[in-house]
Design brief:
This protein is 3% helix and 47% strand. The protein is mostly beta strands and 248 residues long. The chain is elongated, with a radius of gyration of 36 Å. The two termini are 72 Å apart.
């Protein structure tokens, strides 16, 4: 059973500004049935001003936005205008339910149930997604699931990039340098040997100041370099990676 717990501060003043006792109250949802035809509420003893909580059954209402209206009648038989409270109803299942269907889409949502089906076999699960025909650049991979009660989840998305990458591109992306700032030498940390590869240093304005080769320990020696900020460029298999470096 769905119930709405609400609290109202009810105040009624007569035309002479003298408070009257609040005798009865009624409520209705969404459509006014007419004065005296609402659902009765029992009021506590009062002297014209009342704060009271009610538990109101909402099981007959549909999911979505609804309006609750309440009005009161004083001991002289005069009815107040109604007061309105807007609320939202949604069904939530708190019991665990098995996932039976999953689907995904790339970039554009085709609508619930119209995505590309995923076979549910285990949890966790690794997927292999066909990206044939998708253009190079950034894209979104989105997935949603349906449980055994037929309820679909919201979708979750992850960004990914499609491009033409070589092994050299991947290896070059893993190169980093230490320390930075440095004193007299720079250690190039790399998954492959860079022995004999070109290393060039430029000022931030593009002036070439040094060219050397990476030694057998992937180290570049820079004893004669003045203190300042520079750009280091390391070349590997006709690919170049640049680093901003600081000489102490």
């Amino acid at each position: 059973m769905k119930n709405l717990i609400c609290s109202f501060v009810i105040l009624l003043l007569t035309m002479q500004n003298q408070a009257q006792n609040l005798a009865t109250a009624e409520y209705f949802f969404n459509n006014d049935p007419g004065i005296g035809n609402g659902i009765a509420l029992s009021l506590d003893t009062n002297s014209g001003q009342l704060t009271q909580s009610f538990s109101i059954n909402t099981s007959s209402l549909s999911n979505g936005f609804n309006s609750l209206y309440i009005r009161i009648q004083d001991s002289n038989g005069s009815w107040s205008l109604y007061d309105r409270a807007l609320f939202y109803i949604n069904e939530f299942s708190f019991l665990p339910a098995d996932i039976i269907i999953a689907e995904y889409f790339i970039d554009n949502d085709p609508g619930v149930g119209n995505g590309i089906s995923i076979n549910i076999s285990s949890n966790p699960q690794t997927l292999s997604i066909d990206t044939e025909g998708i253009s190079e650049g950034m894209h979104q991979f989105c997935i949603r699931i349906q449980n055994e009660n037929g309820i679909w989840s919201l979708y979750e998305c992850e960004n990914f990039e499609i491009g033409s990458f070589s092994i050299q591109d991947i290896l070059l992306d893993q190169i980093f340098i230490t320390p930075n700032p440095f004193d007299d030498q720079i250690q190039i940390n790399s998954p492959m040997s860079l022995v004999g590869q070109n290393a060039e240093i430029f000022t931030v304005n593009g002036q070439h100041v040094m060219k050397t080769l990476v030694d057998s320990n992937n180290i570049i020696f820079c004893e004669g370099l003045e203190s300042g900020v520079y750009i280091l460029k390391v070349t590997f298999s006709d690919k170049t990676k640049s680093f901003k470096i600081i000489k102490n």
